[in-house]
Amino acid sequence: MTPNRPYLLRAFYDWLLDNELTPHLVVDATRPYVNVPQQFVENGQIVLNIAPSAIVSFNMDLEQLSFNARFGGQPFEVYVPMAAVIAIYARENGAGTVFDSEPAYDQAEELIEEVEMAEEVSPEPETKPRRPSLRVVK
Questions:
Q1: What is the largest CA-CA distance in the chain?
Q2: Which residues lie below 8 Å from residue 53, measured CB to CB, with a gap of 6+?
Q3: Which of 84, 91, 105, 132 could pair with 31 as two cysteines, CB 3.0-4.6 Å apart?
Q4: CB neighbours (10 Å) of residue 83?
């Protein structure tokens, strides 16, 4: 069965915006492929304001969400895999939800770790670049 996190995240995001609330996203910054400004990470987590007025180029699909934002005046491209999303809530009143761990995401992370370990164990042999060989054909 596919994870329900992307569907619930989209629903809560839309619901918060429809009620004129400011959606904030809690992200596990220690997960693979998370790209967030590390200077704002506390205890392995970061809270991101994902209101349309705070971000540009927002994209959310079944695998990830991404956007551009400014942190301390510096532009930054944020990338968050769905597996790294912990919660979404409204800044004004705390309405929202915390997401449970989902087996599909845990299995995917284990597979990534196995692949990374295999790459470390058996590095690809270095090969010399070949010189191009051309010949005249008459």
A1: 81
A2: none
A3: 84
A4: 23
| Tokens coding 120 | 């470390």
> Which amino acid is located at 62 in the chain?
L
Q: Which residues on neighbouring strands pair with residue 12, listed in sequence order?
A: none
Tell me the C-alpha distance between 16 and 18, whole Å: 5
Q: Tokens representing 45? A: 């987590």
- The 3-state DSSP class for residue 65 equals strand
Give the angle 30-36-40 at the CA atoms, nearest 5°: 90
Per-residue pLDDT of the chain in tens (138 residues, 90 and over written 9): 889 999 999 999 999 999 999 999 999 999 989 999 999 999 999 999 999 999 999 999 999 999 999 999 999 999 999 999 999 999 999 999 999 988 888 776 666 666 666 666 655 556 667 776 767 777
